[in-house]
Sequence to fold (115 residues):
Amino acid sequence: MLGLAVPAIMLAVDASPVVGNWEGTLDPGAQPKKRVLVHISSAQDGTLSGTIDYPDQGTSGILISAITYKEPSLHFESNQVQGLYDGTMSKDKSEITGSWKEAGASLNLILKRTP
Fold:
């Protein structure tokens, strides 16, 4: 029976290339730069969910309220911080280049896959 569980787990992990941990830095100019960690996971049915951390501010676990990935485009938003991100995954799936919009401002944000 143990062997039967392994393929199901592998399917969930391989469900989407966007699943994993991503790190980037927001540069708001006059304010200090802010590191951003995005954690995206997939349920067995393929539904994506995630959280956002701001480690420099000691904030973690901000819920992503909506997330969609249609290769190569990623979109997610968080009602908690009134922010949204639109990005495009690189061909080698190692980074996502896009922009983070929050409080009327739009900042470039490149997310790189982390282990």
